[in-house]
Amino acid sequence: MQIKLVNVFLFLSFYLSASIVSAEDSLRQQIEAWRAGYTVEINGSTIQNNQKISTFYEQNQFETIWVKGNSLSIAGQSLLEVILSISREGLLSNDYHAMQFQDLNKLQAVQYELLLSDAFLRLTSHLQFGKVNPETLSLDWKLKKKQIDTSTLLSMIKPNESVQAVLQSIRSNQPRYLRLIEAYESLIEHSALFSE
Questions:
Q1: Residue pLDDT, tens place only, 162-196
Q2: Biggest CA-to-CA distance, the chain
Q3: Cα Rg for the chain, rounded, in angstroms?
């Protein structure tokens, strides 16, 4: 009986470690393909930050942060929630691969990992610097902002924690920005009343 249990335990240990290695190997293979000049695209969605993503995963031994096993980690779930509700801040969820996340069975776990990393880097850049070049706007719109490298922010993510604290640390606390968010939410709320 003990021999059977040991055999089952060894089989399960080998199987689980093999699936972890294959996720790391799959991630490594994708990044090596990018480095070799292959298309930086996943399921028709272009990866904008492939250099930063490649460097991040190479420095972290290809350990995943958004996906654990075949499901999203707590960090992955919270980032996906932020992406799907980002319109509250005047941003478009489709800029962060939202269409790719509609069918969770369509992509492999490693593809979700890479799409979420790209989405996080784009989102943190947009939250810090905006989507519009402030140099082309009038002087009234030039806000002083703290600048944090988005790669540094990515390294702050822990798989078992929400991304909210990291995102909050880069959101603007400028009174103009906060009033703009409030006005936008009020406008959306009032437009919903009239559409009913």
A1: 999 999 888 878 888 888 888 888 888 877 666 65
A2: 78
A3: 20
